[in-house]
Amino acid sequence: MKPVSFYLVTDTHYFENALEAGGPAFEKNMLTEQYFVKESSAIVKTTFEHISEDKDTDIVIIPGDLTKNGEKESHKSFIKELHRLKENGKKIFVITAGHDYNDSAYVLQGDGRVSVEGANFDDFCEMYRDFGYGDAIDIDEPTHSYMAQITEGVRMLAICCDSKGQPKGAMDERHMAWAKEQLDKAKKDNCSVFAICHYPIIPSVPAFDLVGDAKIKEWRKVATFLADNGVELALTGHMHIQSINEFYTENGNRLIDICTSCLVGSPAKYRKITVDDSSVLKVKSIDVEDFGWDLKGLTVQEYFHNQFKNAIVNRVRGALGGGKGIVKLLKSLGRKIYDKATVGAVARILFIKCHKSLKKKKLTELVGEVGVGIFLGDGPHTEGTPVYNLISGVLKRFSFIIKKLEPKLSKGGADVDLTKMVLDTIGNTKGFSDNNAEFNLK
């Protein structure tokens, strides 16, 4: 790949505070929300200011979920911030995604929802004309995907998979045919190409292969299509996670998928990516810095992580509610254990060994820590660590259930090893970092 340098910022979820979200309904929603809403504008402005200070890199790429939930006013304010960034010498390329258009946009106020004007999908090419669409070599009108010349000898294939009236989270045959035409033109023009897509092309962690919305549909087919047509690098978001993954096709071609976290919620990172004259890809992750908010005595990262930990704990707690009859009874019992038990107590119930460092830890605390650890990337819970051994013991205890589940979860010719999938999700076994890494490209 030819030399290029740019910033990658994903899932900005910008919210215009003049819309006045707040009240009991908003506070209840925030109990299970990974990212911040009211703080989002301050976080975006601070990040753009830091990017503007770098005079050596003039490209910024933002692959979708630009606003909180498609509010027209949020788009207007976000576009103003993009213009400020552009005035500081940056060339900006965006795509839109599911959170960016909404025919029934609303804001949580008081005890419920208040309708606000939503952005229309058909208006996006004009709205974001100055940020990719106006300079596109070609635009696929049904999806708003486009090909752009990023710098001399380097093009970017922007793949939009959340298009109105199109298969959600997918590339159908027509879409691929358009992309193939663009890739063939780039090859003829002696240009290397990387791709951006809101959805991860490769599941960010093994367990996400079982989650339908966690990656592009038929991801192996899409990854093979891209890699076998000369695309070695894809930049993605959507899952709010720090991950880097490789996929090799049967022809021996490789695709590297760099999925980057939500900017306005834990892990709250963005990236600087460079390819030098020797075709060495360098990935550097950068933490969001102090954005001028009252952090209640916490560091910036503690502030982000605490919100996410609480969201994980509360989502699990919510899953243990409802039901009827025996199901309701079992869920109620599970919720009581979940809320009050220590890890050591649960280990004793299941007859599993538990390291002394975990025995007095509350189960909810461990759940939150493991969840945040997965999304931070570089999962620390590898073989031999206390958490790995504990979860491995739990999986062995329920192996009789897991064996019955695996055939049902195995689809598309790919057999599922649920135990390995879970353990490889909590611990990074890839041999390279999810946050800062180097690769030799073709």
General description of the model:
This protein starts with a strand and ends with a strand. It has two domains: 4-292 and 435-440, Metallo-dependent phosphatases (Purple Acid Phosphatase, chain A, domain 2), CATH 3.60.21; 300-426, no CATH class. A seven-stranded mixed β-sheet has the order 6-7-8-9-10-12-11, covered by helices on one side. A six-stranded mixed β-sheet has the order 3-2-1-13-14-15, covered by helices on one side. It has helices spanning 24-30, 40-53, 72-87, 124-127, 173-188, 219-228, 300-319, 325-340, 343-350, 356-359, 363-376, 386-397, 399-409, 418-426; strands at 4-8, 59-63, 91-95, 106-109, 112-115, 138-140, 145-151, 154-159, 192-197, 233-236, 243-248, 254-259, 269-275, 280-287, 437-440. It is built from 14 helices and 15 strands. 36% of the residues lie in helices and 18% in strands. The protein is an alpha/beta fold.
Index terms:
15 strands; 2 domains; single chain; alpha/beta; Purple Acid Phosphatase, chain A, domain 2; six-stranded mixed sheet; seven-stranded mixed sheet; 442 residues
CATH superfamily of the largest domain: Metallo-dependent phosphatases
Compute the number of helices.
14
CATH class of the largest domain: Alpha Beta
Overall geometry: globular
Q: Report the order of strands and helices.
A: EHHEHEEEHEEEHEHEEEEEHHHHHHHHE
Number of domains: 2
Radius of gyration: 22 Å
Concise overview:
With 442 residues, the protein is of the alpha/beta class. It contains 14 helices and 15 strands.
